[in-house]
């Protein structure tokens, strides 16, 4: 019996990064849905577990960890049969960490600055400068992928899973078309072929795109 519980909602990009990692590691876990749209993350019980009231939240036998980037690293360190997805080598790990922080601070924030106003406040008008942030983030990603199949080199790591969960969701705002973003397009194609991808990530992603795309008007 697994002690791992993941609290989440599958439309959430960081939740999908954790689902991809759990599947890639072949771990058994219980999934508990937290309906953000119904405000379930704001109830006292959830806030006692995560005062930042965000999903994903991992409960591993009573140990509580939130933030997808912290969760995916913990899962590989604790349960990975190898360190492939999160290398122990200091320099390789530093490169993976850099891309994880890129996802947390640049890529995901470009999305969040549009999705929170929409989902929480019903704001569907998106100022051009917010789309420019997305475009700039895609530019960085395209460069990371210029000479290698994955964001830190030849091997898939948790940085790919986190960045891909966000980048695929950003398509709701700005398409990463093969003309302007050939490397991103090929990389996402590669990720989409992972056996773990089809299980829950695609369903959540499609729901997310369905909710957001078409509802937004770029100013
Ligand atoms: N950096 C965090 C971001 C988590 C986050 O913002 N999750 C959103 C859903 S995509 C959320 O729970 N929002 C509810 C809130 O902020 O109250 C992570 O990677 O886990």
TrEMBL record:
PROSITE patterns to which the protein is assigned, alphabetical: GST_CTER, GST_NTER
Keyword Transferase: yes
Residue stretches making up the GST N-terminal domain: 2-83
One GO MF term attached to the UniProt entry: glutathione transferase activity
InterPro entries in the record: Glutathione-S-Trfase_C-like, Glutathione-S-Trfase_C_sf, Glutathione_S-Trfase, Glutathione_S-Trfase_N, GST_C, Thioredoxin-like_sf
One GO-annotated biological process of the protein: glutathione metabolic process
Cited Gene3D superfamilies: 1.20.1050.10, Glutaredoxin
Pfam families: GST_C, GST_N_3
Subunit structure: Homodimer.
Domain GST C-terminal: 89-216
Keywords: Transferase
Descriptive protein name: Blast:Glutathione S-transferase 1
